[in-house]
Amino acid sequence: MTKSLLAWLLAACAFAAHAAEPAAADKPADKPAKAPTAPTAQQAKMKTCNATAKSEGKKGDERKAFMKECLSKKA
């Protein structure tokens, strides 16, 4: 009885270990890294407004209001 229980336990562990490892065919091929792209107009505006707010020492609600106004301006 003990030997059959031990054999069953070992078989279950082996199956669990095998099931945890995905097959090589299941793994997606390594994708080439994307080349960095130029920032969009909105990203550039965000960077500029953020730098201005930081240099002027704006914090909290004052910063929030400044960023809202700065980002809503036309380029």
Task: Provide a descriptive summary of the structure in words.
The structure is a single chain. By secondary structure, the protein is mostly helical. It has a domain at 38-75. The chain is built from 3 helices and no strands. It has helices spanning 2-20, 41-55, 60-72. Helix 2 packs antiparallel against helix 3. The longest helix is centred in the N-terminal third of the chain and has 19 residues, at 2-20. The termini are far apart. The model has no long low-confidence stretch (mean pLDDT 80).
**Helix content bin:** 55-70%
**Protein structure class:** mainly alpha
Low-pLDDT stretches are none
What's the rounded overall pLDDT mean?
80
Instruction: Give, in order, the helices and strands.
Output: HHH
Report how far apart the termini are: 81 Å
Secondary structure tally: strands: 0
Query: What Rg do the Cα atoms give?
Result: 29 Å
What characteristic shape results from the CA principal axes? elongated
Described by strand count, sense and barrel closure, the largest sheet is: none
Helical stretch tally: 3
In percent, how much strand structure appears in the residues? under 5%
Task: Give the SSE map.
Layout: H1 2-20, H2 41-55, H3 60-72
Helix pairs in contact: 2-3
